[in-house]
Design brief:
Elements (H helix, E strand, L loop, with lengths): L1 H48 L4 H26 L4 H18 L1 H16 L7 E4 L2 E8 L3 E6 L4 E5 H6 L2 E3 L5 E11 L4 H14 L10 E7 L3 E11 L3 H18 L1
């Protein structure tokens, strides 16, 4: 019992001795987190004032914030009595072990760097990648945030994104639509083409140059399939496509 009392007394003394360091560390943690948030807001204002590319600024902010958090962790550990040199050695060993176990995450980080450097897309672009189509909201360190047409948020890992096929729909402002239009076999096929051509030429959301074209893609005994080629601005793509299908049906029914 005497030995147990001695051990308990020693532990209590050690805890009392470390209370100031623990309190100080908590204060440093609170101040440090506040400083990081303040610097984050300040950096955002500076990037906005300097008209820095949002894609670049978002990625750099993520890197800086994580770097400051790691620095804060090191400072607190040092305040608690952990030797910095030993701590660095431990961090190095942990980094090696974590690096081997998290190769996917490292490839995602490298993918994020490649996206920032080569800019296959930017924040605000509409892309099609990994089976998803939507607007790029944010490019994080490890993933890219995309808002789909169904209003879903999708996070695509940067590793597979940078190594896979990416279709940037909004990189060029103009877009060609190829619309398949099918009708029954008409006696007045030429009249159908002429009337549809007139509608396309007069529709303000279809560009006059290059001029819309109507081509016969398939001719069978009972039906004809046309390919309607129109050039539109990206914002008008869906509306113009619907308009062509509607007018084709109206003209076909009238003949």
């Amino acid at each position: 019992m005497q030995k147990l009392d001695t051990l308990l007394s020693r532990y209590i003394e050690d805890i009392i001795t470390y209370i100031p360091e623990i309190v100080t560390s908590l204060i440093i943690l609170g101040i440090g987190l506040w400083v990081i948030r303040f610097l984050q807001r300040l950096a955002k204002r500076i990037f906005l004032k300097k008209n820095i590319d949002p894609t670049f600024s978002s990625f750099i902010l993520d890197v800086l914030i994580w770097g400051m958090r790691i620095l804060l962790f090191v400072i607190i550990a040092s305040k608690l009595g952990i030797q910095t040199s030993s701590f660095v050695a431990i961090i190095g060993a942990m980094s090696l072990a974590i690096g081997l176990s998290l190769q996917g995450s490292l490839s995602n980080f490298a993918g994020g760097v490649l996206i920032i450097l080569f800019k296959p897309f930017r924040i605000g672009d509409i892309i099609e990648a990994q089976g998803e189509t939507g607007k790029v909201l944010t490019i994080h360190i490890f993933s890219t945030q995309v808002l789909t047409y169904q209003n879903n948020i999708v996070y695509i890992p940067n590793g597979v994104l940078s190594n896979g096929k990416i279709k940037n729909i909004t990189q060029n402002n103009l877009r060609r639509a190829e619309i398949a239009v099918q009708t029954t076999l008409l006696k007045n096929t030429t009249v159908f083409i002429e009337k549809l051509q007139e509608e396309l030429d007069s529709y303000d959301k279809v560009l006059s140059q290059p001029r819309p074209r109507i081509l016969i893609r398939e001719l069978l005994d009972t039906k004809i399939t046309y390919t309607v080629q129109i050039w539109v601005e990206n914002d008008n793509f869906t509306v113009a496509t619907s308009y062509v299908l509607l007018k084709a049906r109206e003209i076909s029914d009238a003949l």
